[in-house]
Amino acid sequence: MNVALRPGHEKLMAVTQQQLLFAELRDTFARRLTNHLNNVFVHQGHDQSSTLSQHTAELMLPKHSPLHRDLLRYAKLMEWLKNTHREKYEGLSRTYVDYMSRLYEREIKEFFEVAKIKMAGTTKEAKGKFATLPRKESALKQETESLHGSSGKLTGSTSSLNKLTVQGSNSRRSQSSSLLDMGNMSASDLDVADRTKFDKIFEQVLSELEPLCLAEQDFISKFFKLQQHPTVTPPLAQPETEEPDGSMPSRMAPQAEHRHSLSSEKDMVRLMMNKIFQSIETELNSLIALGDKIDSFNSLYMLVKMSHHVWTAENVDPASYLSTTLGNVLVTVKRNFDKCISGQIRQMEEVKISKKSKVGILQFVTGFEEFAELAETIFRNAERRGDLDKAYVKLIRAVFMNVEKVANESQKTPRDVVMMENFHHIFSTLSRLKISCLDVERREAKHKYTDHLQSYVINSLGQPLEKLNHFFEGVEARVAQGVREEEVSYQLAFNKQELRKVIKEYPGKEVKKGLDNLYKKVDKHLCEEESLLQVVWHSMQDEFIRQYKHFEDLIGRCYPGSGITMEFTIQDMLEYFSSIAQSH
């Protein structure tokens, strides 16, 4: 019917009759083809729903590859229909979308319903409550292993699926962030198991949706002959004609027309996919909201998993329905992650300390440690590390600020002790986890720890030799005022007799007694979990020796030839510190 006729042939009766006959045959065949495919679409829309419960119980979506395989035999005929009966072709497209959207909506709804029940650890009868219930360890292990075994399997023979399988299988395996490997988490075993279960289920959901969407999009483009990828267009052998203004037509016109056709066909694929899978984005957002409600830390898992799947989908086809939809959902996940971080900062700001007990390591300091351990495990091989680094900086600045706030408000525990213990804990955590974006904060935490350790030691040590300290402070003040060092002993308040009197007040026995009382006081100030008592005690010993040598130096310079010495030696002092530490 498309054969070019010679001039005048179209007026011949025989030609006209043949054209009418062929047109009638064409229309009849197009009608029969349309009716047959319509029946196939309608039948398919009602048939697979009977096997749905069997698939969803295992958290698996039914495969549509048998239907796709059967229908692809008609692809050439669909192309013919597209070129000859555009209205019938478009009518078939609408029918397919209508019935397949109903089928997919039922399947996806039940699939997500089962995923929610598995996440919440409830039974089928209790669905809708979504309350977290304890599960037997063996059953949980069997379930998570089952999920792990089926995770990441992408079936299908299309080009998109093969490409995704090659890119995604190994990298997804590296994304498995099982908390069962975290031996140093201080959360309960149940919390770890629940988070692991959530991680596995969420990964399984995404791994089931990926091949489903890609296979459907690939089928639509092949069956309805809608190009998704640019093809090389050969030069069209058309005679050049002049434009109305006398100019020659642009040689780019055929290519521009091809690009317009390609763009419109890609838009049609996208439109069909949006209608068929209109419930996916809503269901994913609902699942994400449930996961966030169960445990706000689940947003960390979801951010890593969703980022990885978006990255994989964009590598296959940045404009695909899957890539666009997952990208939209990723925005919600990122928002939940930011909300989780803001919630932790708000809890820090609202912390209240007891006025009757010592402060110790603040709860939000250990909370940051647990968060960092969890996050480092989850984000170990993540593509979206930048989000976590930004969150770390926000959290650690809030930790620093609120430690200082609590230290200033503390009544039972000295400010220096609160600062020293908590910044020591922070420094130890950052050193152990080696979080590169927090190197500046790690050094700052060490600086604050050492500064407040030194401050606490000096302030505490002023008490055992208080009068001696005051005496030599007076001596140094006179020297600073211009009195020569060798003439200080002629000052009434600082003569040799006054010096001997002060020294006699600190015999070795009294010094040891004073140090013993100091040890008990330090012991009351410090908390057991940070184990800084011996560190502080050793620092006090070093400071005491430094002060002792300073006093001896002043006696030698200001009271030369007097023969005045302290009533205990450095060796005596070392024995005092050692015996006191061993006796407690």
Would you kindly provide a brief summary of this structure?
The chain has 584 residues and is an all-alpha fold. The protein contains 21 helices and no strands.
Query: What's the overall geometry?
Result: rod-shaped
Tally the beta strands. Answer: 0
User: Helix/strand-derived class?
Assistant: mainly alpha
N-to-C order of helices and strands: HHHHHHHHHHHHHHHHHHHHH
The poorly predicted ranges are 122-188, 229-254
The average pLDDT value, as a whole number, equals 79
Strand content: under 5%
Biggest sheet statistics: none
**What fraction, in percent, of the residue positions are helical?**
over 70%
Radius of gyration: 40 Å
Compute the number of helices: 21
**Distance between the first and last residues' Cα:** 107 Å
Can you describe this structure?
Helices cover 70% and strands 0% of the residues. The protein is mainly alpha-helical and 584 residues long. It is built from 21 helices and no strands. Helix 5 (86-120) packs across helix 9 (253-276), helix 7 (159-174) packs antiparallel against helix 11 (298-316) and helix 11 packs antiparallel against helix 12.
Record the SSE blueprint.
Blueprint: H1 13-47, H2 52-56, H3 65-71, H4 75-84, H5 86-120, H6 137-150, H7 159-174, H8 189-223, H9 253-276, H10 280-294, H11 298-316, H12 321-349, H13 363-378, H14 385-409, H15 415-433, H16 439-461, H17 466-480, H18 496-504, H19 508-525, H20 533-558, H21 570-583
Helix pairs in contact: 1-5, 4-5, 5-8, 5-9, 5-10, 6-8, 7-11, 8-9, 8-11, 10-12, 11-12, 12-14, 13-14, 13-15, 14-15, 15-16, 16-20, 19-21, 20-21
